[in-house]
Amino acid sequence: MRDRPPHELLELSIAGKANPHEVRSSLNEFSVGVAILPAIRRVLGCVHEQLLEHPERGPIFARGLYQLCIELGYHLPDDLAPMMGFEDRYDLARQGAHGREEEVARDFIEFTQPFRSAC
Q1: Contact partners, residue 29, CB within 8 Å, separation at least 6
Q2: Of 56, 84, 90, 102, which is most buried by a Cβ count within 10 Å?
Q3: What is the pTM of this model?
Q4: pLDDT per residue as tens digits for the range 82-109
Q5: 24-34: buried (b, 16+ CB within 10 Å) or exposed (e) per residue?
């Protein structure tokens, strides 16, 4: 990986109100010729930084990460597996069915924290 993040990664890290399909497209462009799991860990570090400043963007990032999980056939190592559940957790909290969005946001920040040095 280069010392400076590629343009696509920078766009993804600030994609606060981006369409999930645009986020996935950016991930696809970024992933050409890149080992996907290290790239995901690096993206999660950037997501962490964004969530600290803009926790309201959590559902958007969660949706994009879930779409990525689908693309990978849900085959993720243990350290990445929790990213599969945040979209559902945000939806359930928003509907008032289970938990609160603030709790999900806190957990999402906590999940991405170990990856922060990768960004």
Answers
A1: 8
A2: 90
A3: 0.70
A4: 999 999 999 999 999 999 999 999 999 9
A5: bebbeebbeee
Cα R_g (the chain), whole angstroms = 13
- Residue 11 CB coordination number (10 Å): 16
Residue 2 included in any domain: no
How far apart (Å, rounded) are the C-alpha atoms in residues 55 and 34?
28
Please count the structural domains in the chain: 1
Position 109 in a domain: yes
CA 18 to chain centre: 13
Domain that holds residue 58: 7-118
Asked whether residue 88 is assigned to any structural domain, the reply reads: yes
Strands (E), 1-119: none
User: Does residue 48 sit within a domain?
Assistant: yes
At 4-59, the pLDDT tens digits run 555 655 665 666 666 667 666 666 665 565 578 898 999 999 999 999 999 999 99
Q: Give the per-residue pLDDT at 1.
A: 44
